[in-house]
Request: fold
Amino acid sequence: LSDDIWTWFMLLDTEETGLVDIDAFVSGCMQLYGTARSMQMAKMSYENKLLRDAVSDMREEIGKEFATLKVKLDFHQEDF
Reply:
């Protein structure tokens, strides 16, 4: 049950501020009204967002690493 409550809070805290205002609470309740499938779908949607954010962060970091590597390779090619 405590996992469900934490999941519910994370789903409602769409701005990731650690706070849920009354509008977000009511909107979340309205979206999840219905069967347990609604909660499962909302949880999967939230987890999908976290995964997309993590992949985006990794892509940025990899891009920075490649840029650094290119600069180093270009520098060393000048020596030859």
